[in-house]
Specification:
By secondary structure, this protein is α/β, with parallel strands linked by helices. Helices cover about 35% and strands about 25% of the residues.
Length: about 220
């Protein structure tokens, strides 16, 4: 057995509301995810699934516990090298494809945001080629790069969100209710796309959902 790509030990995520009340959103969670695996995290609405995903990717500062990603401790204060390793190695696909895309930016700039921040592309041509390549991978045309998010359907917007998450060549992707906001007819297309992309790019998924049938279809293990 290889070392787990992600190891979560005793994760606690509390939100202090006032001096008398603290919400214990996540209270002592343990799990591991192996390289190349899809780990399904299932629970009813409000059970803390999305909070776990956001804590793992460090959108939230964990209250307690240890998170190890790719052999590095990412649960506390990180140095610059570890933070860059996390930001490029781990990405997230959000639930609402409209809310997570900047309506003022063209699709090309949305997808290339990570490329620009981490200086992954040396030239403008390399940047444009990577945008075209990733758009084709998610089932969109290169000419879609010049359009704005409001010009697309919900399913197409989720494809743009997926493209953005894969642009920096991550190893690990948190899929936070990635299909729950979509029509049932589109859900199966996006799920099959995620499975294809996993094979093509050698990805590992944490797939968060409240839908048991979706979790059963896509997951290797379920928590």
């Amino acid at each position: 057995m290889s070392e787990p790509l992600l190891k979560v030990e005793g994760l606690k995520q509390y939100f202090r509301i006032n001096s008398h009340f603290t919400v214990r959103a996540v209270d002592g969670v343990n799990f591991t995810i192996n390289p190349g695996e899809t780990y399904g995290l299932v629970g009813e609405s409000g059970s803390g699934k999305s909070t776990i995903g956001r804590s793992v990717i460090r959108l939230y500062e964990p209250t307690k516990g240890k998170i190890t990603f790719d052999g590095r401790d990412i649960s506390g204060k990180m140095n610059r090298e570890t933070e860059k390793h996390l930001r490029t190695g781990m990405q997230m696909i959000f639930q609402d494809p409209m809310a997570c895309l900047n309506p003022r930016k063209k699709v090309s700039d949305i997808i290339a945001q990570g490329l620009d921040i981490h200086h992954i592309c040396a030239t403008q041509k390399e940047r444009n080629d990577r945008i075209s390549e990733i758009l084709e991978q998610v089932g969109l045309a290169p000419e879609h790069a010049t359009r704005y998010p409001h010009q697309f359907s919900g399913g197409q917007r989720q494809r743009i969100g997926i493209a953005r998450s894969l642009a920096v060549h991550p190893k690990f992707v948190v899929c936070d209710e990635a299909v729950s906001a979509l029509d049932v007819s589109i859900q199966s297309q996006i799920i099959n796309l995620l499975l294809d992309l996993k094979e093509q790019n050698n990805l590992t998924y944490l797939f968060i959902s409240h839908d048991l049938s979706v979790i059963k279809y896509i997951s290797d293990r379920i928590g």
